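User: Protein folding is very new to me. Would you mind checking the protein record under this note? It all follows right here:
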Amino acid sequence: MNAQKSTLPDTAGNIALVVGATGIAGSNLAAKLLEKGWTVFGLSRNPKNDTKGLRPIAADLLHPESLTAALPDVAPTHVFFTTWMRNDTEEENIRVNSALIRNLLNVLSPKKSVKHVSLVTGLKHYLGPFDAYATNGTLPETPLREEQPRLDLPNFYYAQEDAVYEAAARDGFTWNIHRPHTLIGKTIGNAMNMGTTLAVYASICKREGTPFIWPGSEAQWNGVSDVTDAKVLADQLIWAALNPEAHNQAFNVTNGDVFRWKWLWPRIAQWFEIEYEGYNGTVKPLEIVLKEKNAIWKEIVKEHQLIEGDLGQLVSAWHTDLDLGRPLEVLTDMSRSRKRGFTTYKETKDSFFELFTELRNDKIIP
């Protein structure tokens, strides 16, 4: 902990631009930066005003003229990229998501204010892109380590990294890449949101009196896994940005513990006071299950006066299926950041239970 404290002396002059401030990673990061005394701008296409102290900016990252118009008086010292856009093919993912970064850094370049850029990607760096995700030809050795080479596959994470490296070489700023496992945290409308997806699924099971059925693979049910609390990711982003010994490095980031889903799944069911079923030889994708549950969710929303009646805004079943259906156990090594002083730890069951409590208190689940 001492290493972390010594690198956080004076944040008064630090101006953060959080790109994707309405998402799981961005919203938690913005809140933590504000707590630490930073000036924080939050850039997104549809900004929210629900974080006290955050200065929202509406802009379209795909259009440089939109960025130029939105940022005339904003000169950030630190840029945190926590967003991406999903497209139909990996080629489009590469074109679009590298443009998001390149456009913004090009617009900021003449200001000469940026000292550091942080980019959040994830484990698809090791497991492959969506259309070749965790297939037999790309299965890596676990635990996943930062020094493992890039896969010989098109991957928009690589293109995003390269856009940061190119701008850093041009403008002289330092950088970090952060690779969380599945992010657990609160937001609405996020494309990758396992915690809320499972909470909504469990709530529907409770309403219908049906068991909480494991949707994924045998390897994930029995294997060792880890996840990343969004607040842990926020801590690592800030630590790395302010710690010169961490600069110009890629870091895995997880809660610091490991678990098996066959241990955690019954505990989630117990939290919701429902029965459960584990892996029984068949994968049962949530995308199929939840597709038929719009009507029952609307009934639940009406009965409990919840705030979001659109099931599609809450769940990301396709991504949860992708993670829970993987044909191998997946866990990551965090030695690189631990050796440099990053010590934040979170027990995973607490990540889920605290999220469920927050969702209930905020009238998102019953």
